[in-house]
Amino acid sequence: MSTKTTNEFGGEFGGITLLGKAHSLSALFIVLLRALIGGMILFAGIGKVLEWPFNASGYLANVDPASPVSGLYAWMASMPALMEIVNVVVPVTQVLIGVALIAGAFVRLAALGGAIQMTMFYLGGWAGEFLALLDSTLIYAVVFLTVAAFGAGRILGLDAYIERIEVGGTPLIERFPVARYLLG
Asked: What residues form the membrane-spanning segments (predicted)?
């Protein structure tokens, strides 16, 4: 026996109720979006690993002075110990985020990590011009957040299975409700 859902979604934002009905292909497209954005960041991370040693200090030190984070990034670039950490964290997290999104595992956590990285790249590249507001890295950040918002890991992803793992006879998601913010 199968049950059919109505593909409705909605919420309330600023006192306005938003309601919609998804097309039957919406699930397919959110899986494709998850895989594509996951592949994009995976290959960015692999590229950095293959060109080892990766060094972010040149980027950080040369951010446009009009950028709101230019001082912070220049300070970061001047700290050798911090740069050693950044030079490992950036490529490793990009690979992990990409693998997680492609597999559909810990999608919300991975997508949040991707959105944070893209926002940091966006701020580093933004020199304050209005038209530059719609830079591709900002759009990527929104795509990561969209994947998280739709719980894309539950559609042809491992999150659907991880949530049902029993811990002490209770599904993981019920035993540890905070896991809802990491999975999905």
From this structure: 27-50, 70-90, 95-118, 138-156
pTM passes above 0.90: no
Interior/surface letters 16-48, b for 16+ CB within 10 angstroms, e for the rest: eeeeeeeeeeebeebbebbbebbebbbebbeeb
Q: What is the DSSP string of 116-161?
A: HHHHHHHHHH--S-SGGGG-HHHHHHHHHHHHHHTTGGGSSSTHHH
Q: Kindly report, residue by residue over 31-50, the tens digit of the pLDDT.
A: 999 999 999 999 999 999 99
Residue spans per domain, the chain: 25-181
Tell me the angle at which helices 80-103 and 107-125 cross, rounded to the nearest 10 degrees.
130
Position 64: which residue type? D
Evaluate whether 133 touches 75 at the Cβ level (below 8 Å): no
